Amino acid sequence: MDHMESAGNKPPLVTARDEGLVACTRCTRVWPIGTQTCARCGTDLVSRDTRSLQRVWAYLAVGIICYIPANLYPMLRTRVLFSTSEDTIIEGAIELATHGALGIAIVILVASVLIPVGKFVAIGWLAVSVSRPGSMEPHKRHKLYELVEFIGRWSMIDVFVVAILSALVQLNFAASINPGPAAFTFALSVIFTMLAAQSFDPRMIWDQDRDYTPA
Amino acid sequence: MPTSDPSPVAQTSDPPAGELIACPQCDALYHAFEPGPGERLLCRRCHHVLIAPRTGAFIRTIALAITIMVLMLGATFFPFLRINTSGLSNAASVFDAALAFLDGGWMIALSFAVASLIVLIPVLRAMLVVYTLAPLAMGRAPLPGARTAFRWSEDLRPWSMAEIFVIGVAVALVKVSDLAKVEYGPAFWMFAALVIVIVLQEGLMCRWTIWKALETNRPS
């Protein structure tokens, strides 16, 4: 086999399912198909998690629903002397931009608007494309899946910003910052979108890649 | 980083040549083998990292996990940041930041979530890793429940968000800088060091090697 490879004549890939095996997605060991749990690490074994799409859609729906109030209600309540202002995510970013902190405003907008909305679209699209082969090359779809998995957690930045500001800026009558209800629903939205991405079984992307022969 | 090609299983069943493994991302089947020092085994189809052992990784991972626990203890309770403006000042620790949502009813849940994401889960993961790896590093059989411990540690991985908290701090500092003068406490630097240690530890751990060691050293 080794000299076959050095001759640049790589054999085609075979999947565990082709060989009547089921793979453990945690420790990568394979077992005869029909085995219930992995004897090495104790994970439940499924060759293709067909019900995973239902979980993806359910978590994604909750994530999107939570994201709506997160944008309508204030994230921060800032009080300086006797004037109080309440800022939603977008208002906060605009205020930062008008104060000259354009870079930070962009960080907030990317983490709190672009990434969450992009994730909703990407996860929904990945779930739809499983039943519509040929819509995009598996390699590109897998890249998209990895990106969504990797980047999802970073949306939590804004929740942490609110937490630090609220703990730090407590100066009696002079100034105080307190969290608004949007911080709660935004955190929920991030958590449920992460669960949606984790529920997706990426092996379903590659099942449409039947004629694949590596270059 | 040097990589080597895993050997795929040919269409008709090969003679057994080492344990069979399948890529968890795309189900491609391979014969597992230990790559050379410093090398990684990538899935040929989707480029997922399958095996990436490091020499002396168990001992180094344990050392880094203990470092994480010690640093987190300090980083949580020592003063993190202090602000000063017109004679008024206020200091906050990471613990205070986690408790920032405590005053309003159901927002308590958010306090609990923030405390978990930035303090409890990173520490719990470090403890689970030490529990799993310490006997293996000493060449003994794993402790009871080691498999469950390592499974939990893996499940919690995406929920450990200390590095994201650090970026949040940077953003908050810009917001607060035109309101007041900011001083950095010892916990600030401990937390910065902590994030580096967490990243180093992640890079050392090869899941396949650990599961393999748990399997072969199992008490019979």
UniProtKB/TrEMBL annotation, chain B:
Family annotation (InterPro entries): PqiA-like
TM region(s), chain numbering: 57-81, 114-138, 159-176, 188-210
Keywords from the UniProt entry: Membrane, Transmembrane, Transmembrane helix
Annotated source species: Palleronia pontilimi
Family matches, as Pfam families: PqiA
Identification of the protein by name: Paraquat-inducible protein A
Keyword Transport: no
